[in-house]
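Entry: Phage tail protein
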Amino acid sequence: MTMTHRDPLVAAYFAVDFQNGVTGAFRECTGLGSESQVVEYRATDERGKPILIREPGTMKYTDITLKRGITDSMDMWQWRKQVEDGDIDGARRSGTITLYNQRGEAIARWTFERAWPQKLNGPTYDAKTNEVAIEELTITHEGYKRVQ
């Protein structure tokens, strides 16, 4: 049997596009995942021996956290304000997260449904460092899938 060697994808940056709003390049993206709760029950096999059966229960999608250098764009702040003002239906957006390599080629893509900004953190300021100020957006959603 011949195995094909595939190099891992090297990430340069993530681009995010939420329908009707937030777009941009992010330096960090975490939380693209899901998990199933485990349902356990005890039973007996045909010989009366006790066994433990573990089945998948409710599936849960993890929240997605995005970090980018702060700019003069107010898109994330305006989106979060919709939730703060109680307009959750207006704030829900589907979107795409695309991973690019160093040549700017799309190498992986995820789509997600009905997302809204759960949390938004502005940058921490430290005038003694020579670093870019980072803002952080956490979104919750109702499902995602990898499409590329």
